[in-house]
Amino acid sequence: MNDNLFDRLFELFQTSDTVNWGLAEEIVKSAAGPREPIEPQLAEEYQELALAAQLQLSSAKVLDASAAVIPDPVDSAGWAIANFRSFSYLMEPLSRALGGETTATSDPIGSMMGSFGSALTGLQAGSMTAVISRRTMGQFDTILPSVNQSKAYLVVPNIEDFASSNKLDPRQVRLWATMHELVRHAVLHLQATQDALSSAVAEFVATIDFDPSRLMNKLGEMRDPAGIEAMLGGQDGLTALLGSEGEPANAARLETLISFLNGYGDYIVNIAGEKLLPDIASISTAYKNHRTASLPELEQIQQSLFIDITRSHPEDGESFCEEVSRRWGLETLVHIWENTHHLPAPGELADPVGWAARTLLD
């Protein structure tokens, strides 16, 4: 972030939005880097592969093809610009916890806190999206779910780099990534998924112990761009203003949902891709290593949002899916997202029998 951006900071504070999306957009444009044109022939290949992926997922009976869309092939900066609002389901409740809905109040303290709440979450949304864009291969690979987005995306340079750095067949990787994106897009657009995310986030935010005096104490450190950047870029991020000393907020339901969402995608793509992707085992192993290598970014995000995302292990979700499919059939797993009651609760990823007793036998 440069000085010119912070010269405009107080101008950008003027918004009635719960989250300052104008500020988020400025951060994304500044931090995501220049656009990288996609070679037209390669973009056309990605779109052709999407048709093959749709057919394979449908024939394997793991996806309703009518819910799938053709992903747009983009570069990382293009993905960031298109998706910085995709985390609003999390950022808006956090902003409200910080007083982000009080910008219009006649109380000067309340108005100031509302402006800072809106601005801080805008800054966080923009910087988080820029960080994720540097390594994500699509919506399926965003660590936190990326929702409120009608389109699907494949980040071509990152997919090509993943194939090259792991010495994998690039065409198989392209098809694998496309299948992942179609599954993620279909699942995220189910009403039950959106309801579950909203409920889990609301439960998480309700456990945050927000102390308004912390914001007041930080004002002295935010009189110049350097002070603002130091606070937001430090180890604590927004947690400097949220939560109690040392104890993270309770995000168990959200962590479980993220783990299941990611593990579900891994399992479904492995099942559907067996016949078309002879190297799928190698691709899956490389992908798990790719996620592990992203842990520093996970830590940067979780320190800012007070969520221990590293506890959201996709392998737990995948193991749960394998066991449910083995015991009660793939159709049980495919329909699990259609009812929020059927989604695994905290502790149930390691206890499929307990999950079944709660959901299948009631």
Describe the structure.
The protein is mainly α and 362 residues long. It has one domain. The chain contains 18 helices and 2 strands. About 3% of the residues have low confidence.
Could you give a quick summary of the protein structure above?
By secondary structure, the protein is mostly helical. The protein is built from 18 helices and two strands. The protein has one domain.
- SSE order: HHHHEHHHEHHHHHHHHHHH
Q: What characteristic shape results from the CA principal axes?
A: globular
Number of helices: 18
- Estimate percent helicity: 55-70%
Describe the main β-sheet briefly. 2 strands, parallel
Task: List low-confidence stretches.
Answer: 102-106, 243-247
Average pLDDT, to the nearest integer?
81
Write down the Rg: 21 Å
Compute the separation of the termini in Å.
54 Å
Main sheet: which strands, in order across? 1-2
Structural class: mainly alpha
Please tally the β strands and state the result. 2
How many individual domains? Answer: 1
Note the beta-strand portion: under 5%
